Amino acid sequence: MAVLTDAEARRMLELLKEALSPKSITLNKGEKQFQLHQISL
User: Fold this and answer.
1) Highest taxon of the source (predicted)?
2) Are 38 and 32 in contact (CB under 8 A)?
3) Residue 14 lies in a domain
């Protein structure tokens, strides 16, 4: 495992919070569907 500095750890927590917010979850779902669509072409 990588050793994180305090600032890096805080940034990771912020990114996790954003990733867990409902808005970004729906965005991620849309992106995944778009990627699947691109793969199937």
Assistant:
1) Bacteria
2) no
3) yes
